[in-house]
Design a protein that fits this description.
Family: Belongs to the sterol desaturase family. SCS7 subfamily.
Subcellular location: Endoplasmic reticulum membrane; Microsome membrane
CATH architecture of the largest domain: Roll
CATH class of the largest domain: Alpha Beta
Shape: elongated
GO molecular function: fatty acid 2-hydroxylase activity; heme binding; metal ion binding
CATH superfamily of the largest domain: Cytochrome b5-like heme/steroid binding domain
Helix content: 25-40%
Pfam family, one: Cyt-b5
Membrane topology: Multi-pass membrane protein
Number of domains: 2
Number of strands: 6
Largest sheet: 4 strands, mixed
Length: 285
């Protein structure tokens, strides 16, 4: 494990100042989290988190209306940045009124909303002083994380054994690397639009070949087995054949995904665990 400094302590004034600058800081009891990089990924919507910036979300985590899962709570820990100073746990921003000066997060920030114990000069200093340190308090703890995130994962996951299945289904919000080779790592990443760029011409070409073949009028079903009971296939059937192909492929893809990709590899087999992670497990991280 790499040595790092201990967690920082944050005053209520500093939390307010950072929220006023655009950060989305929330606390759970005394633990402080910076969700600025997560707000757009939040399944419940960005504004739901923005409205809670500067507040304690421990009650919201437990619900109602939604009790967050253990995985969601583990995900939250990735954004841990430090501790709220003792006595400041209850200090939070007040909801913004529909008035000028409201911050982009939906909160108003004014000295009148601060507790009496908070010095205005401290707030101004916190807001105007550039942050010289990364807020995120991140460590490489192999005992807790089970892997070293700073090294390629593909050669590590096979050693997780019986812990692999639980570990692979806990997503993380951090860059991961699969290979030592920069070239192989480059090939492992694909932008979403590349899929359409590659496969759209292929689908169009094969569709045209199929349609022109049907248009010749020589295509008959079951002709390989019998000529007496074979069924002619006209070109007008092409849209229905195309639709049937999409349905059958979707069903096949689901079955492969459900029963092959989500198959639990044997805990004692390093190579099968590595293969599973390479084929699909990495998708969950």
């Amino acid at each position: 494990a790499t040595a790092t400094a201990g967690p920082r302590s944050f005053s209520a004034a500093e939390v307010r100042a950072r929220c006023a600058q655009g950060a989305c800081l929330v606390s759970c009891h005394r633990r402080l989290y910076d969700l600025s990089g997560f707000v757009r990924l939040h399944p419940g919507g960005e504004q739901l988190l923005r409205r809670r910036a500067g507040t304690d979300v421990s009650a919201a985590l437990d619900g109602p209306p939604h009790r967050h899962s253990a995985n969601a709570r583990r995900w939250l820990e990735q954004y841990y940045v430090g501790e709220i100073e003792p006595g400041d746990e209850q200090a939070s921003l007040s909801p913004a009124e529909s008035a000028p000066g409201a911050s982009p997060q939906g909160f108003s920030f004014s000295f009148q909303s601060l507790p009496e114990t908070v010095d205005e000069k401290e707030v101004v200093a916190a807001a105007q002083t550039p942050d010289q340190t990364d807020l995120c308090y991140r460590t490489v703890d192999v005992e807790k994380d089970l892997v070293d995130w700073q090294k390629p994962l593909l050669w590590q996951v096979g050693y997780l054994g019986e812990k692999y299945d639980e570990w692979v289904h806990q997503p993380v919000d951090r860059p991961i690397r699969l290979f030592h080779s920069d070239f192989l790592e480059f090939l492992s990443k694909t932008a979403w639009y590349v899929v359409f760029m590659v496969w759209t011409p292929v689908v169009l070409y094969l569709s045209w070949v199929s349609y022109t073949s049907l248009a010749q009028g020589n295509t008959r079903l079951f002709s390989s087995f019998t000529t007496e009971y074979s069924i002619p296939v006209h070109k007008y059937y092409f849209p229905f054949i195309f639709l049937l192909g999409m349905i059958l492929w979707s069903l096949l893809e689901y079955l492969i995904h459900r029963f092959v990709f989500h198959m639990k590899p044997p805990a004692s087999n390093y190579y099968l665990i590595t293969l599973h992670f390479l084929l699909h497990g990495q998708h969950h991280k």
